[in-house]
Design goal:
By secondary structure, the chain is mainly alpha-helical. It contains 8 helices and 3 strands. The protein has a 3-stranded mixed beta sheet. The structure holds zinc ion.
Amino acid sequence: MLDFIISNPAVAYTLVIAAVVFSLFASISVKSTFNKYEKVQTRSGVQANVIARQILDSYGLYNVDVVLINKDKLTNYYDPRTNTVNLSASVFYGANVGSIGVAAHECGHAIQYAKNYLPIKLRNLFVPVINFSSGAWLYIFLAGMIFNMPVIVDVGIILFALIVLFQLITLPVEFNASSRAISVLKGGEILGADECKGAKRVLKAAAMTYVASLLVSLTQLLRIIASAKRRN
Ligand SMILES: [Zn+2]
């Protein structure tokens, strides 16, 4: 496969472009799915921040705070450093299927921490390395190419491969947080079966964006390996 790509540069570019198109599609899809289910009010009418509090308490996570942040509605996250579930205003105050799905997903990450779920621990070990790699790989790779130093080129490639590996570990973390969210929403009878279906759709669309980013990086990795090999 790699040999084929090395001898056909157009193939590498086509794969990258296909992955980028898929990634655009995934980001449009997550926005439109969320917008759709943000309009579906729940029968209970309870806001997502209250539900997040209930979920965390039901796992004994009284020390995890649910915090309102001034961010875009699709920017919501669990921060392990401050042990907080951070929700944008539309999610925080939302009493709708979309917001509750997203809030429960972030609680899912807090639960992963509490239960010492291995992939999230691994992923976090990687964070400092990834911060360095993302800033440095391209310069190192290009320096190696310009000064014709294959070892330096390889270092750049390895740094980029670490980013790809990081995105790969992110997948089980994200899928698992969503499945925890759905089972807790269902099991705790927080949402009805039909409402759960909507929340599941939102979380599925969000998960696709992680798959898409992985594919973009993976195809890019193939492309840079191919261009480095062609040079040698
Ligand atoms: Zn997540």
